[in-house]
Specification:
This protein has 6 helices and 7 strands.
Length: 177
């Protein structure tokens, strides 16, 4: 991958492109297929290149510190070391989608381990079979993995508790609660 030099003009242009992709109501930034964004005006800017991702994270830190949801689908990401200590920059970040990337091992995900993730999407990555268990070990509080509810919704748990109390049914009959 070519080394990309980022000057102040490109940084300003990137800021505008990122702000255009940011949804302030949802506090969500969608960077799906970022290298193909027509607003980059022919500039090659691949998030898989660590210098580019680092620059983007710096801009997001400055312009969108309240970020809660980050979508990085389809960017050919292989390692995530640039995300080390990202929890300091984005303590509210609770949802990340890394769908359709090139992540091959769980070790890469450990750079995100201190984020309070409730939702993570890793579909269509060449991860080893059974990786989901390791992911749940890293984030025991994860609620949604690959668009599948992995822990019961708190409201649903309260409802089940009330049903159990009113009916006298034993908890053993409810596998997931």
């Amino acid at each position: 991958m070519p080394k990309i030099w980022i000057n102040s003009v490109l940084r300003l242009h990137l800021t505008m492109v990122l702000l255009d992709r940011y949804d302030p109501v949802e506090r969500s930034l969608d960077l799906t297929l970022f290298y193909k964004d027509k607003a980059l005006c022919g500039e090659f800017f691949a998030l898989a290149e660590s210098n580019c991702m680092s620059t983007v994270l710096g801009i997001v830190d400055r312009e969108m510190p309240e970020l809660e949801r980050l979508i990085l689908d389809g960017n050919h990401l292989t390692n995530l070391w640039v995300f080390r200590q990202v929890e300091r920059r984005f303590p509210r970040l609770h949802s990340i989608s890394l769908k359709h990337n090139d992540i091959e091992n769980i070790y890469s995900l450990r750079n995100l381990q201190f984020l309070p993730l409730a939702e993570l999407n890793l579909l269509d990555n060449p991860l080893p079979a059974g990786y989901e268990k390791e992911v749940l070990d890293i984030w025991p509080s994860l609620q949604v993995l690959n668009k599948i509810q992995v822990t019961p919704d708190p409201a649903m748990m309260q409802l089940v508790e009330r049903v159990l109390q009113h009916t006298g049914t034993k908890r053993e009959f409810f596998r997931f609660f």
